[in-house]
């Protein structure tokens, strides 16, 4: 017991001597001046500043103490201390030493008997253990010395401490009487939240804003604790939600989205995404793009943009609804359907077919983008791959086998594909294709007003139609990327048609045809397309070719 009080009284005696040198009007010797200077330099880091938020770093099981003596002439003045744990629970307490002027005088004169009487004059006025933000409000006397003691028993950590004697201003934004967050709507991928306005928002709207933190782990009792948790996951985090407005501050694991005056930062961490959204002074928000059947935790912080201080509402949580079973479309034999796949949602589109023959054939014609095909027979996978061009899958089974075809875009943009199922002996609706659908141009045969192109045919007598389109340099990329390889010439302007012709060759190596297109303008870019028509009339479009005529001849 004596040892514990010793650590209090050692700085108490020294601080009191320093305070006396400052406040009591006594003759000041050169020794006193030197002692006072040395004393305050030594204890400068242990004196808690008034009106300033102080960050305190704690080592495990090692207590740390801060002291403050309020200014002379402020007897019975109110003061407030706010402590914010930034990680694990901590223990902290406030001790006060009430002393009279005669006691201070004896302390200044080095009265050793004072230690025997001192313990009765020291009392603990507040203590707390936990990780919540806690505030103590009290009345001070100018003849009292205060000590704050902090201890972390779990691990090294840090906290923030704020002492103020100014009751007129507020460093921390105020919370409403009811600081709870209400969940007003839950969907498969969205959750709608609402909360009571902070009085600070109503009074200082231009300097205050709300920030939302979304994660899959747990609620956080302070913005400081949330930032610490994200940093501990192995990434650097911008200093605060409110002030993280510069994209160059983001790490590779972070994505920032700024839309409709809302700032969103998505952190990729091991326990899932952590989203930070600052939405100004709106007190209702619908969180988008969540995963179905997932529990999320939501925390609202009201942030003072001038001081960077924040206050936390009482966090809440909600579980999104389970994803509905995907709709399944029935496939009919001999019927071609075209499916458009949403690249952003990355969801599977499902088709179902019940076999009426033992041997069947699926045909897929890629129209745009990139598509992954997955085929299961009676629940077991029989084929799965990314397709390009025209792809056939010939499968063998039993009558009434159930086939499930799932299609998904592998790009962020939309993709589309045509699908047909038919008996294996049935003549396919799609035409027989050559080994390559590329169009070749001959640079040596280019002139100022003509170009020569060539393409492969098949052993089947088929119809080929050639179309041309004049384009500009800046249109090339868009024309090639947006081309729909399933669309026929009916979508083209009549003036773009060059010719149509039939040809075939029983020898695939010799099934090549060329065509010279005349009447072109010099030094001009042209887009050439070839359409192949099979017996059923369904067209297949070759890969577009861009050729520029010579400028000078």
Structure write-up:
The chain has 553 residues and is mainly β. It has 4 domains: 40-99 and 121-164, GOLD domain (Jelly Rolls), CATH 2.60.120.680; 173-233 and 271-324, Immunoglobulins (Immunoglobulin-like); 328-423, Jelly Rolls (Sandwich); 439-548, Immunoglobulin-like, CATH 2.60.40. The protein is built from 7 helices and 35 strands. Strands 11, 12, 13, 14, 16, 17 and 18 form a 7-stranded antiparallel β-sheet that branches. A 5-stranded mixed β-sheet has the order 19-21-26-23-24, with no helix packed on it. Strands 30, 31, 33, 34 and 35 form a 5-stranded antiparallel β-sheet that branches. Helix 1 (2-23) crosses helix 3. The termini are far apart. The model is unreliable at 1-45, 114-120 and 235-261 (pLDDT under 50). It is found in: Secreted.
What is this structure, in a nutshell?
By secondary structure, the protein is mainly beta. It contains seven helices and 35 strands.
Report, as a whole number of angstroms, the end-to-end distance.
106 Å
Which structural class fits the helix and strand makeup? mainly beta
- In CATH, what is the homologous superfamily of the largest domain? Immunoglobulins
Helicity level: 10-25%
Number of strands: 35
What form results from the Cα inertia axes?
elongated
Approximately what portion of the residues adopt beta-strand conformation?
35-45%
How big is the Rg? 39 Å
Quick check: average pLDDT?
A: 80
Q: Regions with pLDDT < 50 over 5+ consecutive residues?
A: 1-45, 114-120, 235-261
CATH C-level class of the largest domain is Mainly Beta
CATH fold category name of the largest domain? Immunoglobulin-like
How many helical elements? 7
Count up the domains. 4
Assembly classification: single chain
Largest sheet: 7 strands, antiparallel
* CATH architecture level-2 label of the largest domain: Sandwich
Domain Fibronectin type-III: 173-310, 431-539
Organism: Eurystomus gularis
Main location: secreted
Protein name: Protein NDNF
């Amino acid at each position: 017991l004596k040892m514990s009080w010793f650590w209090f009284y050692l700085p108490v005696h020294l601080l009191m001597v320093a305070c006396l040198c400052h406040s009591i009007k006594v003759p000041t010797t050169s020794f006193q001046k030197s002692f006072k200077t040395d004393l305050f330099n030594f204890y400068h880091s242990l004196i808690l500043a008034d009106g300033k938020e102080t960050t305190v770093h704690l080592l495990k099981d090692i207590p740390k103490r801060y002291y403050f003596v309020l200014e002379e002439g402020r007897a019975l003045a109110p003061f407030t201390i706010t402590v914010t744990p930034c990680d694990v629970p901590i223990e902290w307490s406030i001790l006060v030493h009430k002393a009279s002027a005669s006691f201070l005088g004896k302390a200044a004169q080095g009265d050793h008997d004072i230690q025997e009487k001192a313990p009765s004059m020291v009392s603990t006025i507040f203590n707390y253990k936990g990780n919540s933000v806690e505030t103590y409000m009290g009345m001070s006397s100018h003849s009292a010395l205060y000590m704050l003691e902090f201890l972390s028993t779990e691990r090294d950590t840090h906290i923030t401490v704020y002492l103020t004697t100014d009751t007129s201003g507020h460093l921390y934004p105020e919370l409403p009487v009811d600081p709870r967050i209400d969940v007003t709507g839950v969907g498969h991928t969205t959750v709608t939240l609402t909360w009571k306005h902070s009085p600070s928002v109503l009074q200082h709207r231009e300097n205050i804003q709300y920030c939302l933190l979304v994660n899959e782990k747990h609620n956080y009792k302070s913005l400081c604790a949330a930032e610490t948790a994200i940093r501990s996951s192995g990434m650097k985090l911008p200093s605060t939600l409110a002030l993280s407005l510069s994209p160059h501050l983001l790490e590779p694991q972070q994505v920032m989205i700024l839309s409709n005056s809302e700032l969103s930062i998505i952190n990729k961490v091991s326990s899932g995404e952590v989203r930070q959204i600052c939405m100004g002074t709106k007190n209702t928000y619908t969180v988008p793009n969540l995963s179905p059947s997932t529990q999320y935790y939501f925390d609202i912080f009201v942030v003072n943009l001038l001081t960077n201080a924040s206050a936390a509402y009482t966090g809440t949580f909600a579980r999104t609804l389970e994803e509905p079973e995907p709709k399944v479309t029935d496939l009919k034999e001999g019927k071609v359907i075209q499916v458009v796949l949403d690249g952003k949602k990355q969801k599977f589109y499902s088709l179902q077919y019940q076999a009426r023959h033992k041997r069947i054939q699926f045909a897929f014609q890629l129209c745009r983008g990139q598509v992954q095909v997955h085929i299961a027979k009676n629940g077991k996978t029989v084929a799965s791959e990314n397709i390009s061009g025209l792809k056939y899958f010939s499968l063998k089974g039993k009558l009434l086998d159930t086939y499930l075809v799932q299609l998904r875009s592998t790009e962020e943009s939309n993709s589309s594909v045509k699908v047909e199922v038919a008996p294996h002996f049935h003549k396919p609706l799609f035409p027989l294709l050559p080994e390559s659908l590329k169009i070749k141009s001959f640079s040596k045969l280019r002139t100022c007003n003509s170009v020569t192109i060539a393409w492969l045919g098949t052993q089947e007598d088929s119809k080929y139609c050639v179309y041309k389109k004049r384009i500009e340099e800046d249109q090339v990329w868009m024309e090639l990327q947006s081309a729909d390889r399933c669309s026929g010439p009916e979508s083209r302007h009549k003036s773009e048609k060059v010719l149509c012709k039939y040809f075939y060759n029983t020898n695939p190596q010799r099934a090549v045809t060329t065509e010279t297109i005349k009447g072109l303008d010099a030094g001009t870019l042209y887009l050439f397309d070839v359409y192949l028509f099979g017996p059923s009339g369904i067209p297949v479009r070759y890969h577009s070719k861009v050729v520029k005529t010579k400028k000078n001849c």
